Amino acid sequence: MLETAVVVIHLLMALGLIVLVLMQQGKGAEAGASFGAGASGTVFGSQGSATFLSRFTAILAAVFFATSLGLAYFAKNHALSLREVGLPTQPVQQAPQPKQDGNDVPLSQPSAAQGGTSGDVPQESK
């Protein structure tokens, strides 16, 4: 149950980080505002949205990092518990050995001198 809660929080933090990073303006956007391009960031105060969004992004990143460590801890414990259970060993099955009587000798192939074909090379027609 705790592991599921950490996974849900981790996913929410990941989505929150994506949204916050996409909402933030680049460094070049501030230069346009200083030349009279409009009232940049008036919703978040006179300093703009840089401090609010960057602080909130840092908080979300810290929580995301903590949940990542928590998930790594859960994965380690899960792997150790599987190692303790162990896997059943199956005996190696060997192929049955053929009978060794005199009839197992392969027949010889006719050679090319006797009129037979050698390998996969087709005979030239005369």
UniProtKB/TrEMBL annotation:
GO terms for biological process: intracellular protein transmembrane transport; protein secretion; protein transport by the Sec complex. One of its GO terms (molecular function) is protein-transporting ATPase activity. It holds the Pfam family SecG. InterPro entries: SecG. Keywords: Cell membrane, Membrane, Protein transport, Translocation, Transmembrane, Transmembrane helix, Transport. It is found in: Cell membrane. Residues 90-126 are annotated as: Disordered. Residues 106-115 have a biased composition (Polar residues). It is a multi-pass membrane protein. The chain crosses the membrane at residues 52-74. The keyword Transport applies. One of its GO terms (cellular component) is plasma membrane. The keyword Ribosomal protein does not apply. Involved in protein export. Participates in an early event of protein translocation. Belongs to the SecG family. This is Protein-export membrane protein SecG. It comes from Pseudomonas oryzihabitans.
